[in-house]
C-alpha cells in the first residue's frame, strides 16, 4: 500500500533484511488494486480504519488489530478518511513458521513498540541488520507467530451495489438511514438488499451495521475516547444502549475493554 511504502519495489525484495517496516500517514483516502508481494505482510493502523481484501473476503480492521498476509497472497487495501499506519514486510525465507493463511491478530504493546523501532531503520537491501536489530526483528516474528488470531474482521459483500452501501456505512457508521432508505440510495429493492446481504456476508443488514459500529467503537476506545462520546458519535440513543450491545458482543463493558487496552 503506497501509504506505507514510497518505493513499491522494496516489498518484493527476495533478499535483503528479514523484515522491512515502514510507517506513514495520509489525510486523504488511499486505495490499491489487487496485487501481491514476494514478502509476507502485516498491516495495521494507528489512527483510522483500514480495509484489506483477500480472495472473496474483506476485513475492516480497527487500530487494535492487524492483518497478516502470507507471501504472494493477492490482496487489495483501502484507508477510510484520515489514516496513520504501518506495514511490516517479512522475507519469504523466514515465513515458514508464521501463519500460512491470512488472519487478523490483536496487536500487543510489545509488537507495536518493536515495529515502531524497526520503522526507523534505513531501507538498504545490502546492509545486514546489526545484532540489536536482529533481536528486534526476532521479537516481531515471535509476536506474529504467537499472538492468537481474532475473528474481528468485517466481511464485505461482493455485489458492487452492496459494496457501495457497505463502504458508505463504514465511512459513516452513525448514519440514520434505515434499510429502505439505503436500498433506494443504492438503486436496488429492499428485499434484494436484505437477502443478498445475508448471502454475501453471513449477517443480516442490521447485524452487519451493528458490527460496523462496533469496529469503529474499538478504534475510538483505543484512542481514549469516553464511552458516552463513543455512544453518541456512533448513533446510539443512549450510552446504556451502546454498553448493552458492546457487552453482548465482547463479554465485557466498553470501559473494562478500554482499561485492558490502555493497560496492555
Q: TL;DR?
A:
This protein is α+β, with helices and mostly antiparallel strands and 264 residues long. Helix content is 39%, strand content 22%.
Care to describe what's here?
It is globular, with a radius of gyration of 19 Å. The longest helix is centred in the C-terminal third of the chain and has 18 residues, at 205-222. The protein contains nine helices and seven strands; from the N terminus they run βββββββααααααααα. Strands 1, 2, 3, 4, 5, 6 and 7 form a seven-stranded antiparallel sheet that branches. The chain is an alpha+beta fold. A hairpin with a 2-residue loop joins β3 and β4. It folds into two domains: 8-146, Jelly Rolls, CATH 2.60.120.280; 160-263, Arc Repressor Mutant, subunit A, CATH 1.10.10. It starts with 18 loop residues before the first strand and ends with a helix.
Secondary-structure map with pairings?
Layout: E1 19-26, E2 31-35, E3 40-54, E4 57-61, E5 65-69, E6 75-90, E7 103-106, H1 109-118, H2 131-146, H3 160-171, H4 179-185, H5 190-201, H6 205-222, H7 227-233, H8 239-250, H9 254-263
Q: Regarding CATH, which class of the largest domain?
A: Mainly Beta
CATH topology of the largest domain: Jelly Rolls
Span between termini: 28 Å
Give the tally of structural domains: 2
- The assigned CATH architecture of the largest domain is Sandwich
- Fraction of residues in helix: 25-40%
SSE sequence, one letter per element: EEEEEEEHHHHHHHHH
Average pLDDT over all residues: 85
Identify the CATH homologous superfamily of the largest domain.
Regulatory protein AraC
Biggest sheet character: 7 strands, antiparallel
Estimate the strand proportion. 15-25%
Rg computed from alpha carbons, rounded to a whole number of angstroms: 19 Å
Amino acid at each position: 500500500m503506497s501509504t506505507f511504502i514510497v518505493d513499491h519495489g522494496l516489498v518484493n525484495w527476495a533478499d535483503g533484511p528479514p523484515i522491512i517496516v515502514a510507517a506513514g500517514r495520509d489525510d486523504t483516502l488511499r486505495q490499491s488494486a489487487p496485487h501481491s508481494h514476494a514478502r509476507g505482510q502485516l498491516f495495521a493502523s494507528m489512527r483510522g480504519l483500514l480495509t484489506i481484501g483477500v480472495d472473496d473476503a474483506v476485513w475492516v480492521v480497527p487500530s487494535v488489530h492487524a492483518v497478516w498476509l502470507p507471501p504472494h497472497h493477492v490482496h487489495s487495501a483501502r484507508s477510510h478518511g484520515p489514516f496513520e499506519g504501518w506495514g511490516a514486510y517479512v522475507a519469504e525465507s523466514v515465513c515458514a513458521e508464521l501463519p500460512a493463511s491470512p488472519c487478523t491478530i490483536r496487536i500487543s504493546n510489545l509488537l507495536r513498540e518493536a515495529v515502531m523501532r524497526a520503522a526507523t531503520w534505513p531501507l538498504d537491501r545490502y546492509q545486514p541488520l546489526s545484532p540489536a536489530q536482529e533481536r528486534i526483528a526476532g521479537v516481531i516474528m515471535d509476536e506474529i507467530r504467537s499472538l492468537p488470531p481474532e475473528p474481528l474482521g468485517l466481511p464485505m459483500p461482493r455485489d458492487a451495489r452492496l459494496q457501495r452501501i457497505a463502504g458508505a456505512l463504514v465511512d459513516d457508521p452513525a448514519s440514520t438511514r434505515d434499510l429502505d432508505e439505503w436500498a433506494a440510495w443504492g438503486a436496488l429493492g429492499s428485499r434484494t438488499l436484505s437477502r443478498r446481504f445475508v448471502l454475501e456476508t453471513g449477517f443480516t443488514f442490521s447485524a452487519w451495521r451493528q458490527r460496523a459500529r462496533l469496529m469503529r467503537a474499538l478504534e475510538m476506545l483505543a484512542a481514549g475516547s469516553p464511552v458516552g462520546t463513543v455512544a453518541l458519535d456512533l448513533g446510539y440513543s443512549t450510552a446504556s444502549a451502546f454498553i448493552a450491545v458492546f457487552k453482548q458482543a465482547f463479554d465485557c463493558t466498553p470501559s473494562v475493554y478500554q482499561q485492558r487496552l490502555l493497560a496492555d
